Amino acid sequence: MQHPNTLSELLKLPEYAGRKPFDGKSRKVQDEVRHNLIRKLRGGDELFPGIVGFDDSVIPQLVGALLARQNFILLGLRGQAKSRILRAITSLLDEYIPTMGGLEVNDDPLNPITAEGKAYLEAHGLELPLNWVHHADRYVEKLATPDVTVADLIGDVDPIKAARLGTSLGDVRSMHFGLLPRANRGIFAVNELADLSPKVQVALFNILQEGDIQIKGYPIRLELDVMLVFSANPEDYTARGKIVTPLKDRIGSEIRTHYPRTVQEGMNITSQESYVDSSVQVPTFIAELIEEIAFQAREDARVDKLSGVSQRLPISLMELASASAERRAYTQNVPAVVRPLDVYSSLPAITGKLELEYEGELKGADSVAREIIRKAAGQVYARVVSANTDKLEKWFDEGNVFKVPQDGPAKDALETMRQVPQLLETAFKLSSDSSEAHRLSAAEFVLEGLYGRKKLSKAEEMYAAAEPETQRKGAGRWN
């Protein structure tokens, strides 16, 4: 689409018919978002593509805030897609808007708010040259840290600029604008709002309530057209920082986010966000195991509940487990199918994302992570396997030991597994693929699941002390 290059060409468009400079009729950002949101609602369009698991909770509240033209805050633990939601709102802006070129602020060519913009419009009149800004470039984001200053967000007096222009320090032309004025006619997001110092939070009062800003105490006001959105972590709300009460009062809506409520929702998110090479096959029971690990970690008493367990954990775990299978495929010339042993080899994706309580610190992150995997395997096994394994368990109870082959062709490994009663029969029912590599993964998962259900013990010394009840006399072992 060819956009008008000058103001006179712009005024020939139907939507600008009858408009003239300084008429004060420009549509505000909140109205723009509201208009495009209504259009999507009426058309049955997907509002926020890529946001999974919030259809019946977060999104209805978000839609309500946007229709009400409110600024809002997303409150939730880490890894709950808060930043992604904020950035997704840009899809509700017009695809392009006209602005004046060469200015620090995205000034409206018909109703500029800066002194430079007003002078520019008066000087050029209808021949004013235009720039067109894409909606993705109308989003400004700032991660709040204690060292952020009012000058960073709002702006400051620039003595050098004042001297060069020959103006007083109280002249708006002597101001250096911060991030917020530069977000004019767009969306300004502050992540982790509670980490801002109270002084900086107070500086946001005017823009939230009156829609203007003041700089350095000078009687200068800029009537900004900006939509403010925030995010914060409940832990930061009460521990490291605090949102001052008057600022909370000025924020229209507080919307709570959450982790996936079902394993299937989590699997959908992980599948969408993780990188898995096309050559790697991830069996469904392995994908469910990886997601269940995050659910078990969030319930584990040794993991800090206030910090939460980010959805990035299963995403990273999926990527590392897939990479482990891919490495095996390259080095052993076998199909790249993810197995439970690949999940165990990907412990760094778990240990680095768990904030442990005192008890967990005593046991060590690796030990806690392995126990969480065991519990997760037991839970998934109970859901996906319904076969009778009495003969298998009896075989182990008689003192037999079996070692799962980790290297070599899947065909050879399956052949060695024939000695274990009911193992292959159960694995073949679980496997949705007839390939030997897939069936080997299923057979290994059956053993891991029975271990998770405490039907078998695992011959690893680090587990002996943690689960003495499974080390009963005559118990079978596999390793």
Helix content: 40-55%
In total, the number of domains comes to 2
Number of strands: 14
Helical segment count: 24
Q: Unreliable segments (pLDDT under 50, ≥5 consecutive)?
A: 461-477
CATH topology of the largest domain: Rossmann fold
> Order of strands in the sheet with the most strands?
4-7-10-1-11
Query: What is the general shape?
Result: elongated
The biggest sheet amounts to: 5 strands, parallel
Beta-strand content: 5-15%
CATH class of the largest domain: Alpha Beta
**Whole-number average pLDDT?**
87
CA radius of gyration is 30 Å
* CATH architecture descriptor name of the largest domain: 3-Layer(aba) Sandwich
Classify the secondary structure makeup into a structural class.
alpha/beta
- Report how far the terminal alpha carbons are from each other: 65 Å
Can you tell me the CATH superfamily of the largest domain? P-loop containing nucleotide triphosphate hydrolases
Overview of the molecule:
The chain is an alpha/beta fold and 479 residues long. The chain has two domains: 7-256, P-loop containing nucleotide triphosphate hydrolases (Rossmann fold, 3-Layer(aba) Sandwich), CATH 3.40.50.300; 263-478, no CATH class. It contains 24 helices and 14 strands. The protein has helices at 7-10, 29-43, 58-67, 82-88, 115-124, 150-153, 159-165, 179-182, 198-202, 205-209, 234-238, 245-250, 263-273, 284-299, 312-332, 340-344, 348-351, 358-363, 365-384, 390-397, 410-417, 423-430, 436-452, 461-464, and strands at 72-75, 96-100, 130-134, 139-143, 155-157, 175-177, 186-191, 212-213, 222-223, 226-232, 253-256, 401-402, 457-458, 477-478. The strands form five sheets. The chain has a five-stranded parallel β-sheet. A three-stranded parallel β-sheet has the order 12-14-13, with no helix packed on it. Helix 19 packs across helix 23. The longest helix has 21 residues, at 312-332. The radius of gyration is 30 Å and the shape is elongated.
